[in-house]
Structures are given as C-alpha cells and as structure tokens.
Amino acid sequence: MVKANTNYQLLKPSYLFSDIAKRINQFIKDNPNRSVIKMGIGDVTSPLIPEVICAMHLAVDEMSKKETFRGYGPEQGYDFLKEALRGYYKNFGVSIDLDEIFVSDGAKSDIANITDLFSNDNTIIVPDPVYPVYVDTNLMLNRKIIYVDGNISNGFLPLPYDGLKGDIIYLCSPNNPTGAVYSKEQLKLWVDYALNNKAVILFDAAYECFIREDYPHSIFEIEGAKDCAIEFCSFSKTAGFTGTRCGYTVVPKNLIIDGQSLNKMWLRRQTTKFNGVSYIVQRGAAAVFTKEGQISVKKVIDGYLDNAKILGEAMRAQNIWYTGGVNSPYIWFKCPEDMDSWDFFDAMLNKIGVTGTPGSGFGKQGEGYFRLTAFNTKENTILAAQKFSQVKNWR
Ligand code: PLP
C-alpha cells in the first residue's frame, strides 16, 4: 500500500496571508465607505524595465525563425547570462567561475531543492524570525532545527554563540522579514563558525540590490566563504521578475563536504531534475546588467527605498523602535504600547485603514513586532505614513 510522507504533518498550516485577507475582507464589508492601503505584500509593483522588455521581444523574434530558433538550453543557464552575472559580482570584488553559477527559475526553488544535497541527520540552524521556506523545506525531511533568536538587543541579527551546534546555517541579508543587514564583521563570525564546525552556510541574497550603504552584497566578500557557503539570489526583487521567474545560485568549486563536491552534486541534481529557464527570460535577465539596464533598475529600487524612508520617518515620529528600511524594502518595528502582533494588525486596520504583516507569522521571536513593505505606490505610502503619524493612542 502506498505510504504518504508523514513529515508533512509536522508543518504548521500556513494561515498567515489567508487570515490577513479574511480580516481585510470583513473590514471592507463592515466599512464599505473606507479604503484600505495594503502594506503587507512582499511583491513588487513596478513594471519590467524597458531594457528587459526590449531584450525579450528580440528573443521572441529569434524563436520565430528557423535559423535562430532554440530548443532545450543548458540546464545551468546560457553563458551570456552567466558572463553578465560574473561581471556583476566583480563589482563587489568577488571573482567566480562560470561553472559555479547555476541559473534557475528563482531563489525559492533553489533554496528548497538544495536540501537534496544533504543527509537528513544534519542539524539545521535558522534565525527566528525567518522566511518560512527555510523551516518548512527541512521539516518536510524531518530534520532537527535549532533557532537562533533575533531580538532588539542583537538588532535582529543573531550571531553564533558558544555551544551552538549545527551543520547547515540559513542566513538572509538584507533580511526578510526584518530588513536588518549583516556587516562584514558579523558575517565573518558566521563564516568562521562554519569553517570551525565543518558546517555549510546557505546565504540568501535575494535583497542585495537594496543595499546602498557599506554592507556586503555577497557572502563571498568574506574571506573563507568559498570553502563553506552557497549563495542564492534572484531577479525577483532586483528587476521585478516575481512573475517572470529567474534566479541564480552560486556553488563554489572549493566547497567539499564529506569528500564530495557540492558543485558537482548540484550540477548533477539540476541536470537530472531541471530543464533550465526559458531562453526569452534569460535574455531579459541579461539585459538587467547592461549599462542602461543598471540605471533603470536602480531608479525603480530607489523609488521603493524612498517609500521605505517615508515609513521609517513615521516610526521615528512616534518614537517606535524599528529596524530595516534603509538597505531593504522592509520596515520591522515593535508594536506600540506593547501590543501583540495581531492586536496591532486590527488596531491599525480599524484606526487608519492600513495593513501589514504580523511579525508572529515569521516565528516566535516575531511576536509583538510588525512588518511593513515599501512596495506600494509613493502616494499610498505617504498617505499611510501620515495617517500612522497622527495616531495618539493605538489601543
Ligand atoms: N528569499 C527571500 C528571503 C524572499 O523573501 C523571497 C521572496 O519573497 C525569495 C527568496 C524567493 O525569491 P524568488 O521569487 O526568486 O523565488
């Protein structure tokens, strides 16, 4: 008789966004004349830049002619895109070989699929609060998970401590949900921990394009990281590809665990289970790295960062502790008047018609905190910030 993977029963039902939608719908039903500004969504809203659209149009035309038509491409991505990515990493002083880059349909699938390379008796270290994919993909394999706590005293940037014992470490910087960014010195502590404990760091750089200050964009800026880290990145937030789908993973050839090359294992995994990203999408992605493409994406991201700044000012006006919002599209703040995350959700919705994401949805350490995103329009962000600043009493 067929047996199901009972590990799926270990997963907590994912009610967060459906609960949010339910409460908003009820509010609209009860208050038909009031509008709601949604600041919870972690999805981009600006359209693709003209350089990407133009490159994709040209690629479609190529596909229409016998001479330039393309069928299956290399599973790891076309060299033209990998060359562009290699050039981008050079901006941060990081040198990578083409066969260390693997193009994919996005960071989420790679973060999930990388679990294939490791035995299930590894212990996993994840920060709390956390992007839920790191936790759920390991629960599906019934792996032991240790949480390292983020809180106000460490600025939501947990670091290794004496006695911490784990084999696979998930780090995300700039962080979702907190917007906090690790410094070089802090990342070095994690790299040293990984090297000393023969552990591997899985570094999620999905928001690196928001960094405007002197923080590392890539874990490979840290000495020793090529011996202990894999990096995931994506065009989703960089260039508005959340619906277009393209990402990449860098697996250094130096990375040998248990006598096995993770680069070779990932190549084998991808060529066995994945057939590559569409040529048209990869042409679009490569256009992001042209001179004009870089100017255009910077303009879009600067727009989101301006929104984040507006939200940060609203927090300061109310004397609310917050992090993020400078090198990140996320603002993570302590709910005023010691409210819990859901009580604050209801208070904000009822008092000013603005919504966000309750921090408790990202882990135990998120209780009492709240996430706002900068992906709404400038007009709505200004309006939400004005309304927020005018509240005298949240309870
Ligand atoms: N990593 C983090 C931290 C994210 O927040 C997201 C998406 O929101 C992803 C990865 C997924 O990116 P992609 O759209 O490339 O799958």
Radius of gyration (CA) equals 22 Å
Largest sheet: 7 strands, mixed
Strand order across the largest sheet:
2-8-7-6-5-3-4
Helix content: 25-40%
What overall geometry do the principal axes of the alpha carbons give?
Answer: globular
Order of helix and strand elements from N to C terminus: HEHHEHEHEEHEEHEEEHHHEEHEEEH
Secondary structure tally, helices: 12
End-to-end separation in angstroms reads: 56 Å
Topology:
Blueprint: H1 16-30, E1 37-38, H2 50-63, H3 79-90, E2 101-104, H4 107-113, E3 123-128, H5 132-139, E4 144-149, E5 168-172, H6 184-196, E6 200-204, E7 229-234, H7 235-239, E8 247-250, E9 256-257, E10 260-261, H8 262-273, H9 279-287, H10 291-317, E11 322-324, E12 330-334, H11 341-352, E13 354-355, E14 357-358, E15 369-373, H12 378-390
Parallel strand pairs: 1-13, 3-4, 3-5, 5-6, 6-7
Antiparallel strand pairs: 2-8, 7-8, 9-10, 11-12, 12-15, 14-15
Helix pairs in contact: 2-9, 3-9, 4-5, 10-12
Pyridoxal-5'-phosphate is lined by residues 42, 106-108, 131, 172, 176, 204, 206, 234, 236, 242, 247.
